[in-house]
């Protein structure tokens, strides 16, 4: 009887131990499950909160950027001197009534030149399309404005040959913004129609200018955007000499001339000064002018100007 009672007691103790282990394991499992659930819930709400903060911050930055852009447009500019090209030029306009002999002479000049600046523009009032081309030569340049027309005659054929010589892969073509190679109004000319223009070497001076300007004219020491190793554009920038405040914003040609040379270039896209303005900017970029060189150039231009 004693042995029987002892055995029964041992079995009960074992059952009790297993029960406690099972209970402990269940409690532990439930605790882990509850902890995981709470952690997931907390992470979910934290992510929503961070996302909300980022969204609000982005909207605030963009709103501030837009406000600054609008504000900058209303800041009165300093007195600017008249725009002056780097070198003298001769302007020629080619219309439907122009003699093919003139184009023949220009073809001869084009064969001697390997650098050109090109700017397409329209007269909105008449709907006429023009292509402005500057021959970049040693001491002076030639600026040709070609009226685009589609009448098949001797002049059209000469212009077709003329454009094929200029838009040759061996030449360097400077533009402001990317040149639209698929211009519908130019498709009658072989260099556009055959796709040869895709082989041309175009240089987008607008992109080059932004990089050069930000490097040359850094942020002021008290600028809100001052960074140790970066001269990027940002809505926080408070520098008056850096009107472009958003990284995605591009410089207009008018502002690029005004802020770099303190010269007034406001004749619009139909002016024969557009190509010389692009050329002038690329020249200083190519020669990597410093801030000191630019400031000296401004002073000299101011002294030599009629209002200086």
Automatic annotation (TrEMBL):
Keywords, alphabetical: Membrane, Transmembrane, Transmembrane helix
Transmembrane segments: 21-45
UniProt key word Transmembrane helix: yes
Name of the protein described by the UniProt record: Uncharacterized protein
Organism: Rotaria sordida
